[in-house]
């Protein structure tokens, strides 16, 4: 029988979860910006103006804005396992829809759904908070964001390569299918409570945060907004 009180040989379950979250951030940013590379081909094929292409680019930002707060609430309500699986299915379906669209309205619909799906980052933070020792939270946050920026950087050559192989439509379908595969792996592997994971050890559990009980409390939205204003301004300029 496995000795749960000793460090587990091989890759710890906590590292596997962090790896899955890094992959999620990587994929999440690819599906956001792949349309920028594909636009050079889809614009003339669908007879779109520059203004219409601009609408496609920006259509995902509005639901993304709205669901940043809602996504965090969903994670608290239903748990990161179910929430992130559903969000990933949404952005996977939206990406495939983009590849099947034949009109401006179809592309905008796909981007709106994409904005809902990729707003899952607060859910990922919830998962990370339960599965990361306090002394490694900075590292975990840093490496996941590094994978996000890596996704941004690799998207143009990756999508261009896929477009050569399978066309711009096929590139969306391939990325969507890979995203769906990630959702399946996440749903099967991850557990909201690390203690319920068969690969966790007592050694790992002792280093993780204590399990929190749910409580109903009033959220101080105004105070939080004021505290977050500086970083909000930074991200606005970044965007």
SSE topology:
Layout: H1 13-45, H2 50-58, H3 61-78, H4 80-100, H5 104-117, H6 121-131, H7 137-189, H8 202-207, H9 221-238
What global shape is seen? globular
Beta-strand segment tally: 0
CATH superfamily descriptor:
MFS general substrate transporter like domains
Structural class call reads mainly alpha
Tally of helical segments: 9
Oligomer: single chain
Mind telling me the CATH class?
Mainly Alpha
Helix share, percent: over 70%
Estimated radius of gyration: 19 Å
Low-confidence stretches: none
List SSEs in N-to-C order.
HHHHHHHHH
Our estimate of the beta-strand percent is: under 5%
How would you characterize the overall build of this protein?
It is a single chain. The protein has 239 residues and is mostly helical. The chain has one domain (13-197): Up-down Bundle (Growth Hormone, Chain: A), CATH 1.20.1250. It contains 9 helices and no strands. It has helices spanning 13-45, 50-58, 61-78, 80-100, 104-117, 121-131, 137-189, 202-207, 221-238. Helix 3 runs antiparallel to helix 4 and helix 4 packs across helix 7 (137-189). The longest helix is centred in the last third of the chain and has 53 residues, at 137-189. It is globular, with a radius of gyration of 19 Å. The model has no long low-confidence stretch (mean pLDDT 88).
């Amino acid at each position: 029988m496995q000795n749960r009180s000793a460090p587990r040989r091989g890759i710890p379950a906590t590292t596997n979860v962090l790896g899955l979250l890094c992959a999620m951030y990587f994929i999440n940013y690819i599906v956001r910006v792949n349309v920028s590379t594909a636009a050079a081909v889809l614009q003339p094929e669908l007879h779109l103006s520059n203004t219409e292409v601009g609408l496609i680019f920006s259509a995902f930002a509005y639901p993304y804005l709205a669901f940043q707060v809602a996504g965090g609430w969903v994670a608290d309500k239903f748990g990161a396992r179910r929430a992130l699986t559903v969000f990933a299915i949404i952005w996977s379906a939206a990406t495939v829809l983009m590849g099947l669209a034949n009109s401006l309205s179809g592309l905008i619909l796909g981007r709106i759904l994409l904005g809902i799906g990729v707003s899952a980052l607060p859910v990922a933070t919830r998962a990370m908070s339960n599965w990361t020792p306090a002394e490694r939270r900075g590292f975990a946050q840093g490496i996941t964001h590094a994978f996000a920026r890596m996704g941004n950087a690799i998207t143009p050559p990756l999508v261009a390569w896929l477009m050569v192989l399978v066309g711009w439509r096929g590139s969306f379908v391939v990325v969507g299918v890979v995203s769906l595969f990630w959702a399946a792996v996440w749903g099967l592997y991850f557990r909201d409570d690390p203690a319920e994971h068969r690969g966790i050890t007592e050694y790992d559990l002792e280093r993780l945060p204590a399990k929190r009980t749910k409580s109903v409390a009033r959220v101080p939205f105004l105070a939080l907004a004021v505290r977050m204003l500086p970083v909000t301004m930074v991200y606005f300029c970044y965007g």
